[in-house]
Fold this protein.
Amino acid sequence: ISTVALSITFAKGEQNVDQNSMGIQTNLISPESFENNEALKLEAKGDQIAIHPRAVAVTDPIAVAFISHGGLESLLEETLLRNGTFQGNEILKDVHMNSRLISVFTSNQITNISTPVNLTFQHLQSKVVQEKVLCVHLNSGALSDHGCQHLFSNTTHTQCSCQYLSSFAVLMATTHKQGDLILTIISFLGLSISIICLFLCIVTFLFCRSSHNSSTFIHLQLSFCLFFADLLFIIGIDKTGNKILCSVITGILKYLFLACFVWMFLEAVNLYLIVRNLKVANYSGASKYMKISMYLIGYGFPVLIVAISAAINPGAFGTLYRCWLNPNFIWSFTGPICVIIVVNLVFFCLILKNLHEKLASLNSEISAVRNTRSLMFKAVAHVFILGVTWCFGLFQYGHLEDVMAYMFTIFNSVQGIFIFLVHCLLNQKVREAYWHWICCIKDTRSPVSEITMTSVPISKPLANEPCTNAEHKQ
């Protein structure tokens, strides 16, 4: 076909052929073809080649044929890169051809050229964001990416630069980095421990009455949201087989993570009110209106954001490989988070200013001041651990992509551990409650004979009974 096309071009000049499975455009190249120093462009079936004047230094006219072949994808895929092939630190899987095979022939049989030619391919199927693009050429009966460079891709077209005049195609492949397995192990182990810690937090906040106040109420809601978010992440992040189910999982995950940040915002507001009054709001005494308001904001605002996002771009909920937001639509999640973090920082500045004024006029050892400073420290730590985690997630690109991925995975996995450590283990009242529960469990397991054989006057309390002492402390 190429020989006939080149011969006709010498006889009749530029030719265009458009058939169902093939498109051909030919032209004559002479020194006059590049008088304006512009590239010569040939196009067929939506594919295009641009030949720079320096690529083919000609003194006599030569014929060039540009052919776009259709229907060869299934035949050629047998000779492509195999699944599991390594490229750098990546494993290529699900390799498939996503363009027509295009060929360039010249009458003087030039193959190696001094300046690369630019090729534009029209995709056979829309490109998925996560897919890696390979620009390849036919070499000794197989496709190779040596000498070809990927310049640009969108959903419909890919542009490549190659140093050969040959046959070319675009391959798409799923990539899995060698470090992905390590990240997966870290993530699932860390999240499993985090879920256990969050469960302990929920039990503690519900049943430890000595620590009940408005801050504990907010921490309970935060623990609920993070507990179910981590649990759903482990169970459903890779359930991509069912498109509808994956979209639902994505929406719920987005809702739960947003709810975590909204409750952090409410914690900052609550802290600000505490500092203004310099007392810890009592949980049981909190007004019904205040609780309802917190519920409406804490759980209603995330619903509003998710609903608006789903109405704007429902197709962005769920990707080919993860039940999470499409990277092009991630701003619908990160935008509200950034706003909440900034607002929280403003509140914390106001809190510090008010605390400084209070400390200037009051004794710094007053328990209310100490409690407020402690709550302030914990709230700032909250924003840091959750906010920094998602900052690492936002900057996973370029040379620091792997480092940011590891930092995001580690910080995301220890959020539950952090909450349990700060709000339970470092809280004196909670530690006393834990000791009280442990002592009572030990006493209930004591043999009946030991109790009946112990002679103690009824009117005298048991001085060494830890469970009773713990009760008196409460």
